[in-house]
Design a protein that fits this description.
161 residues, three-stranded antiparallel sheet, Immunoglobulin-like, alpha+beta, 10 strands, 2 domains, 27% helix, 2 helices
Length: 161
């Protein structure tokens, strides 16, 4: 009798994803899904909410982009559906702290110290200030890399042969 209960529990656990339950993703995080067969095409209902790429023909990598709901369908080379799921993208659940100051909201990533991490729904001022600082840091890094590459290439190699 116990074996039958264990088999029923295992069936419920391992067959649940195949029955079309929602695939839940965190925004700005990736998740790997193994397919039951080789995929040739992936269709995304709303690519602004989630993205999917075929890593190898039987592995998809999903990325949550912004909060919302969409669907993803994978087709084999004959056009048959081998994977179809609704996808729900929400906020990160681990290592995040949301700070409210009246109507203003700011999100922090805490691992181990808390640092600003702009997220959908943060106040406009906080979000704009932090993303501008991040863009400036990226530009400084790119300029330094360009200068280093130019120094390595030397004047004789710049602009052609």
């Amino acid at each position: 009798m116990r074996a039958i209960i264990w088999l029923a529990a295992a069936f419920a656990l391992f067959s649940a994803p195949a029955l079309g339950q929602d695939l839940v993703l965190e925004a700005e995080r990736a998740q790997i899904v193994r397919l039951p067969g080789p995929a040739a095409t992936v269709v995304i209902g709303n690519p602004a909410v989630a993205d999917a790429v075929i890593h190898d023909r039987s592995t998809l990598i999903f990325t949550g982009k912004t909060y919302g709901r969409t669907n993803i369908i994978a087709l084999d080379s004959r056009g048959r559906v081998i994977f179809a799921r609704d996808v729900v993208v929400g906020p990160a659940q681990r290592g995040r702290l949301t700070l409210y100051r009246g109507p203003e909201r700011q999100t922090l990533a805490c691992a181990p110290e808390c640092q600003p991490a702009p997220a959908i729904g943060d106040s406009d001022d906080s979000f704009a200030r932090i993303t501008a600082q991040q863009a400036e840091r990226i530009a400084i890094g790119e300029a330094a890399a360009d200068a280093a590459n130019a120094a390595v290439a030397g004047p004789g190699l710049a602009g052609g042969r």
